[in-house]
Amino acid sequence: MSLAEAMIFAIEQINNNSSILPNVTLGYDITDTNLTNRHAMNSSLDYVNVHKFASIDPALNRTCAILPKEQLAPVVAVVGTGTSRSSILVSNLLEVEDIPLISYAATSDELSSSAYPSFFRTVPPDRFQSKVMSDIAKHFHWTYVAAVAADDAYGRSGIEFFRKQSKLQGICIAYNNFFPINDERDAKIKTIIEELKQMENVGVIVLYCDSTSALSVLREAKSQKLEGRIWIASEAWGNNDAVIHKKELQPVLKGMLGVVFTDITVPSYKRYLLSRTSLYRSNPWWRVFWEDQYGCTFNVTLSKRSNKALCSDNLKVTEDIFDKKLYDSKTTYVINAVYAIAHALDAIFKCKFPSTGHCPRTKPFVETRDVLEYLKKVNFSTETSSVFFDENGDSLATYSIINYRVDKDTGGRVETVGTWEAQRLNLNSSAIVWNNGMTGKIPRSVCSETCKPGFRQTEEMNCCWQCIKCSQDTVSSKHGARNCTPCPADYISNEKRTKCHAIPVERILWGDSIGIMITFFACLGVVATALVGAVFIWQNNTPIVKASNRELSYLFLFSIGMTYLWALINLAEPSDFICPLSEAWFYVFYTIAVVVLGVKTKRIVHLFEHRVPRSELSKGFIEKRKHILIIIGILGSDVLILVIWFLLDPPHPEIDKSVRTSYYLGCKVTSNVAGSFCHYLLIAILVTMSFVCCYFAFKSRKLPHNFNEGKFIAFALYVLVISWVTFYPVSLTIRGKFTVVVSGSSSIISASGLLVCIFVPKMYIILLHPEKNTVAYMKSQISNHTFRQSTADRNSRHKSCPPDSVPSVHGSATTSTPADTPRYRESPKLPHPGDLESSNKVISYL
Q: What count of other Cβ atoms lies within 10 Å of the Cβ of residue 72?
């Protein structure tokens, strides 16, 4: 009734408006299809036949019951139908005569196809409704939903577009099924509900169907106690009273959200209905309406017979009656459809936009083909909206989002909680009453929780997934990421794998704890070396200092101090100056230390083993200048190799990228074969000198107790060799800043070994036993050693004599010795302490 009155209201407004279709009166023919395809097709067939007959012979119109007699005016356009399926059928039939069909309710996207060129609609198509549904699911983070629909054009197209939109939104349709609209419907619906009950993680169900089918689905859900789910209703049943007011469906419908056409009431149409009284009964439905609404009758006879009250002429349409009985959201679309036809006809009669250069024909009647073309160009505004059609015959889409509420009086009602306009969803989430009867707490509909940043989401069976943490140096920065993005070169991921950051270039700084420790011990070593040197200078003329070969001792102390300082050079920031300096520093001063130890050890062995006569003390190996020449020669070789090395392949700073988590700024020692050769040659010289020194130290192991400096030299060499034998394998294994720790520690340990083993025994005598630091004490020690050595030599000779040269028991020898051979050989002379002291050649004293 409301839709029919809306059409009549629009036509009367147009006929009374002189600005549109002046001198032209619109007529109408209203047929009730009862929402069945058969009735819709029968009525449409009549329109087609009348148009066809009128086109052949206008006189045939006189026999038609549809149009007024003696007046030729076949139907130029049809407003309808109320369903997508019937609209598809009717549109195909009307297209035969190019009769436009403008629907106020058919929303199937199938009708947007070019296969229906004569179809228009003032209601939005389902693809927008499906977009709204997916936007709602996205808004509430419902990623695991079910979709159920009627197996017709409306349901299939709606679900198909919902599936496409959901995929774009990252929403998974866990269950999708259709039920027929024939006698097998109830059995299929029962199976669908049974399957949905098994899917406990599915908290949201989209239902695309008309109100009759929706009632069947909801009743079956109630029967199987499928409660606690959120239903998303399509516009065909979302605000339908036949569904909403069913009190028995409250447990199922609680929390339902619906997508319906925007509730736009045309003010003038509302005033038109509110002005109606029971005097107005020109149309047959009004008589039925008054009698049903007020429980009376206009039939006097019936009133007397049934004791039913007689309807008065003063009955009115109240606001309450309008809201509950006469309001229909589709009335706006009916009025817009009528106005669209009127504007197309107005353009035809006023000869607007002629496509062929000639005005459209209006006599004896308007061609439906012209109406079809002019409908495509209409663009006008009404009281509530703008009306135009795109290339598919579709109009602008606006929707309202409704929420079901339990109502004690009506059984149930719906409230608007949001809108969807201009492709944007606006929801008042706090106003939604959910299926638990409360607001605020949004129900969940997910199979697996969305993966947090730092994880990637892997899809599995049934639309579920697992969250796997991104691997090293890959990241994901958003929720639900499907893949982890690798970090660029020279970047690594943080621990949470959420972002990449530049790989830090590290080195040990002076202020670091390790740097402070190395600096402390290195400086302590330098101070200790300086103190030893100061004591030696203080006791410069004492036997201990003189016996140590003062020049070599001071040179040795200097090399030890420089070895301590090498640990500090390693802490300096690598540069083109520091890198060569570090290598040169190491090989020069370590070579000096080892060569000085070798010379000192060789002197000890030479003096005591060869027993050099006093007259030869100024000759041979023990001369000072030869010591200096040996040191200069070996050191000069090192310097020459270093110069060649630095010219051909100088060490330079390099960022070590072998460790992925942190880069290390260090020195690259060599880059080519020439540099490597020089490097290994320097190592070979140092190792060779160390072994030679160890050899002489080994030979000096039998020196007298007070002259056994060789033993301490051997200890010092052992510490030196062990520290560097440890350093080189470790330095080749460990990468990064800890190479500085190893090299610095090795340098400090080896320098400390040299300082302690060589000089601490001397400092012990000088500071704690000065009575032993005298010439007389040293002479006595040398004499004792000479006596013991001579006695050992004589015993050795007696044991080696033949039997005939041994004296008999009677005191005479059996055989005499030759006359030119003395019986006892004179012992060779050892160096005299006074001569050794004056020539600065005294053996070290412990």
A: 17
Distance CA 25, CA 657 (A): 89
Nearest alpha-carbon partner for 396 in 423, 418, 376: 423
Q: How confident is the model at residue 281 (pLDDT cuts 50, 70, 90)?
A: confident
CA dihedral (375, 377, 383, 386) positive or negative: positive
CA distance 262 to 350: 34
Specify the 3-state DSSP secondary structure of 542: coil
731 CB-side CA count, 13 A: 19
Q: Of 167, 256, 151, 253, whose CA–CA distance to 208 is shortest?
A: 151
> 359: how many CB neighbours lie within 10 A of its CB?
13
Q: Does residue 448 contact residue 433 with C-beta atoms inside 8 Å?
A: no
Taking the C-alpha atoms of residue 157 and residue 496, their distance in angstroms, rounded to an integer, is 44
Tokens of 7: 């059409």
Where would I find the H helices in 350-468? 368-375
How many helices (H) and strands (E) would you count in the chain? 25, 22
Distance of alpha carbon 21 from alpha carbon 348, whole angstroms:
10
Angstrom distance (rounded) from CA 654 to CA 739 = 14
What's phi and psi for 121, nearest 5 deg? -155, 145
3-state SS, residue 453: coil
**What angle is formed at CA 435 by the lines to CA 433 and CA 436, rounded to 5 degrees?**
90
SS3 at position 462: helix
**Bridge pairing between strands 119-121 and 78-79:** unpaired
Burial tier of 440 (Cβ tally within 10 Å: 0-12, 13-18, 19+): exposed
Residue where the block lists tokens 């940043």:
453
Q: Report how far apart the first and last C-alpha atoms of the chain are (Å, whole number).
A: 129
Nearest Cα to Cα of residue 77 among 50, 62, 99: 99
Which residue type does 22 have?
Answer: P
Cα gap 226→664, rounded to integer Å: 65
DSSP 297: B
Phi/psi for 362 (5° steps) reads: -120, -5
Return the exposure string of 379-395: e unless at least 16 CB atoms fall within 10 Å of the residue's CB, then b: eeebebbebebeebbbb
Beta bridge partners of residue 465, listed in sequence order: 459
Q: What does the alpha-carbon distance between residue 352 and residue 346 come to, in Å, rounded to a whole number?
A: 8
Distances (CA, A) of 594 to 556, 590, 619, 717: 9, 6, 24, 8
Spatial distance between the Cα atoms of 274 and 262, rounded to a whole number of angstroms = 22
Nearest to 200 by CA among 445, 542, 401: 445
User: What is the C-alpha separation between 125 and 105, in angstroms, rounded?
Assistant: 9
Report d(CA 494, CA 649) in Å as an integer: 38
Strands 204-208 and 172-179, bridge-based pairing: unpaired
Q: Identify which of 78-87, 539-548, 614-623, 727-736 has the greatest average pLDDT.
A: 78-87
Tell me the torsion sign for CA atoms 787, 788, 793, 798. positive
Q: Return all residues near 661 (Cβ < 8 A) that are at least 6 apart.
A: 492, 503
CA 34 to chain centroid, in Å, comes to: 57
Task: Establish whether the linkage from the previous residue to 364 is cis, with ω within 30° of 0.
Answer: yes
Q: Would you say the pTM of this structure is higher than 0.70?
A: no
- Spatial neighbors of 506 by CB under 8 A, at least 6 apart, are 662, 663, 664, 665, 736, 737
pLDDT digits (tens, 9 = 90+) for 289-341: 888 888 888 887 777 777 788 888 888 998 888 888 888 888 999 999 999 99
- Report the C-alpha gap between 761 and 767 in whole angstroms: 10
Please return the burial class of 771, using the count of CB atoms within 10 Å of its CB with bins 0-12, 13-18 and 19+: exposed
Q: What is the pLDDT of residues 616-653, one digit of tens each?
A: 444 544 456 677 788 888 989 999 999 999 999 999 99
Contact 128, 382 (CB under 8 A): no
Q: Which amino acid is at 48?
A: V
Ramachandran category for residue 611: left, alpha or beta (phi over 0 → left; psi -120 to 50 → alpha): left
Contact (CB, 8 A) for 84 and 107: yes
